[in-house]
Amino acid sequence: MKASLLALLGGASAALAQVRGFNYASQGQDYNGFASQFKTAAALAGADDFTSARLYTMIQDGTTDTVIDAIQAAIDTKTTLLLGLWASSPQDTFNNELTALKSAIQQYGSAFADLVVGISVGSEDLYRISPIGIAQGSGVGQTPDVLVDYIGQVRDIIKGTALASKPVGHVDTWNVFTNSSNAEVISNCDFLGLDEYPYYQTADDNPIGNAGDLFFEAYDKVANVAGGRPIWVTESGWPTSGPVSGEAVASVDNAETYWQDVACELEHRGIDFWWYILADAGATPSFGVSNNGVPLYNLACNATSGHTSNSTSSTSTTSSAAANSSSTATASGSQTSSTLNGTATSAIGGSGSSGTATAAGSAITSTVVATASAGSTASASGTGFSFATGGSSGGSSAGESGTATSTGANAVYTGAASKVEGSIAGLVIVAGVAAFAL
Ligand SMILES: *[C@@H]1O[C@H](CO)[C@@H](O)[C@H](O)[C@H]1NC(C)=O
Ligand SMILES: *[C@@H]1O[C@H](CO)[C@@H](O)[C@H](O)[C@H]1NC(C)=O
Ligand SMILES: *[C@@H]1O[C@H](CO)[C@@H](O)[C@H](O)[C@H]1NC(C)=O
Ligand SMILES: *[C@@H]1O[C@H](CO)[C@@H](O)[C@H](O)[C@H]1NC(C)=O
Ligand SMILES: CC(=O)N[C@H]1CO[C@H](CO)[C@@H](O)[C@@H]1O
């Protein structure tokens, strides 16, 4: 599937089932272990529909290249799968991952393929070779050129099989994706898997009150370099116990706040995610949301969004999408508290494309921006300021239009669009050369 089409599907979340689930380690697990965890996750009180599993390897623990039992367990429990191949190893070891992948396709066919959401080649391999990863003693990683080669090998193996149409990508940390030395990995991916933990961002202001903002800032930075590829959140979480990390305090209360601010906001935005982790009693720090099937805190999302507290500080959540020629980019976000300031969403479309941005809620100020280039359409709607910019700066070329709808306050149209229209209540500003009709 083309990245641009996936971007569209990622945005049209209302029409498609969102994928939600947990990460599952392979160590010490067999069929019964996986099946029982998948059932526990699906039935977890408060957590709605956590029926997907992200795996790190295709190989069953204790074997050389036998298919991981998680596949049969997923089939039996109707659990969808984000497959992983461990890629921080030389070719002869990586070949075992490829052998297990081939066996899975041969053994389970479409019963398996129907559950596969995507295939990740590697997990945090580039983080581990970065200066921060090395300083943390995070272990053996992999270079971008080898990852690109391995991604190609996986594409070759799935060609002509039941997995042929599945997106192939890579999982890593946000600062890896924004490092231009790794651009070649991004351009070889159909999706980017983002692992993001504000708890570990000790160089930033990372108390729990700022954690949601740090998370979505990182998400947006990755969105800026993703070239329209969907970004799946492959790991995030907040520990219920463990050491203080910068200004981040591990506690049950803070883990519950983080769940509301991040997991519930991802759910709200329709972004696919795999939380870290279902259960890890005894680990330090301990990120598990449950113990013996019992949630450690309330996992039910508040009816509104994650950002529901009364705050006097300005809060901004953003999402963006880009599209190629003749396609559509949609970005949406919402802000539901009347005392928080500003949801900004933007959609940028290329030539022959259209961009749509929407913001819902009753924030004092919500800023919505849609930008489209020549021969394209931009529309923006929101309850606060809405900006729609259509057309190139060169003049009123044919076929360019911008639409801004604001039910709350103000609508602003800018750029040289041949047609600008909108329905507004409040201030109307038209800048640039434009013929407009309201
Ligand atoms: C950027 O990426 C390259 C290749 O993965 C790596 O060698 C380098 O250390 C990274 N730089 C930083 C600052 O993370
Ligand atoms: C979610 O709602 C509950 C009950 O309505 C409230 O006690 C809690 O503070 C809310 N959590 C957040 C993070 O807003
Ligand atoms: C939250 O803010 C609204 C609007 O300013 C105010 O009416 C309400 O009393 C506040 N609620 C709390 C719990 O502070
Ligand atoms: C909200 O945004 C407006 C416009 O940018 C600004 O004037 C106002 O001070 C902000 N309010 C808060 C509480 O940040
Ligand atoms: C087919 C095509 O035009 N792909 C392009 C889509 O947009 C991204 C980001 O702008 C480019 O990198 C692709 O080459």
From TrEMBL:
Report the subcellular localization: Cell membrane; Secreted, Cell wall
Q: Which InterPro entries match?
A: Beta-glucan_modifiers, GH, Glyco_hydro_17
Q: Where is this region: Disordered?
A: 308-340
Q: Give the range the annotation lists for the signal sequence.
A: 1-17
Name any one Pfam family assigned in the record.
Answer: Glyco_hydro_17
Which top class of enzyme applies to this chain?
A: hydrolase
**Which molecular-function annotation in GO is an example for this chain?**
glucan endo-1,3-beta-D-glucosidase activity
| Its membrane topology | Lipid-anchor; GPI-anchor
Q: Which reaction does it catalyse?
A: Hydrolysis of (1->3)-beta-D-glucosidic linkages in (1->3)-beta-D-glucans
Q: Which GO terms describe its biological process?
A: cell wall organization; polysaccharide catabolic process
* Annotated keywords: Carbohydrate metabolism, Cell membrane, Cell wall, Cell wall biogenesis/degradation, Glycoprotein, GPI-anchor, Hydrolase, Lipoprotein, Membrane, Polysaccharide degradation, Secreted, Signal
Q: Domain of life here?
A: Eukaryota
> Mainly resides where?
membrane
Decide whether keyword Signal is in the record. yes
Which GO cellular component term is one of those annotated?
extracellular region
Which EC number(s) are documented for this chain? 3.2.1.39
Q: Which family does it belong to?
A: Belongs to the glycosyl hydrolase 17 family.
Instruction: Report the PANTHER family cross-referenced here.
Output: GLUCAN 1,3-BETA-GLUCOSIDASE (PTHR16631), GLUCAN ENDO-1,3-BETA-GLUCOSIDASE EGLC-RELATED (PTHR16631:SF13)
Function, please?
Answer: Glucanases play a role in cell expansion during growth, in cell-cell fusion during mating, and in spore release during sporulation. This enzyme may be involved in beta-glucan degradation and also function biosynthetically as a transglycosylase.
Q: What is this protein called?
A: Probable glucan endo-1,3-beta-glucosidase eglC
Q: Which organism is it from?
A: Capronia coronata CBS 617.96
